[in-house]
């Protein structure tokens, strides 16, 4: 029965994560409630996200919604940011990490009302003074803490005037990049409980395909309200779990 629950958790978390980020808001707390050790739960998330995020990206790539020429450089930038974040995390206290997380999410929430980006633009992703520092900084955040990484990236791509469906593909490629290295680390250190991880992985693969198909039909004007809802939920979860 536990594996069926994990499969359903994977579907729900990855569907939401594909649409607006924040899938970890569902999967990690749910796994902890089931009694799965925290490092094994995080490792299961990283492994499942590696495969599910790539499957979403590849679906959009096959549909020619996104090109490798536009997106390939995300991989080294995100990996570099993740490595930097992991190094910084070893130097910062847990309390300060939570403050950084809440501050960034509140900032993203406020700027969503100020910013002009509404995911209706047709700009391609280019290497410039906004995209490179933005993606690298979010990679650092992912290495530092993690929850909300995808949501922050959606805000960045909205600001860069990139169409929503292409933003989905770009976010999923960046998520694949950041999770790949982390997944290898958790596997190498023996933190993975494979039956748990495989059940979550199968659900995540299903959720990724559901989410990407919903994204192809989602009207751009609905994207920011969904992002704002996910952002508030992330802030609330982090505050309740780590501040109170």
Number of strands: 0
Mean pLDDT: 85
Low-confidence stretches: none
Our Rg estimate from Cα atoms comes to: 17 Å
Number of helices: 11
Keywords for this entry:
single chain, 244 residues, mainly alpha, 11 helices, globular
Characterization of the model:
By secondary structure, this protein is mainly alpha-helical. It has one domain. It is 77% helix and 0% strand. The protein is built from eleven helices and no strands. The protein has helices spanning 2-20, 24-33, 38-62, 68-71, 74-89, 94-114, 131-144, 149-159, 164-188, 194-217, 223-242. Helix 2 (24-33) runs antiparallel to helix 3 (38-62), helix 3 packs antiparallel against helix 9 and helix 5 (74-89) crosses helix 7 (131-144).
Write a concise synopsis of the structure shown.
By secondary structure, the protein is an all-alpha fold.
Would you spell out the secondary-structure blueprint of this structure?
Elements: H1 2-20, H2 24-33, H3 38-62, H4 68-71, H5 74-89, H6 94-114, H7 131-144, H8 149-159, H9 164-188, H10 194-217, H11 223-242
Helix pairs in contact: 1-2, 1-10, 2-3, 3-9, 3-10, 5-7, 5-9, 6-11, 7-8, 8-9
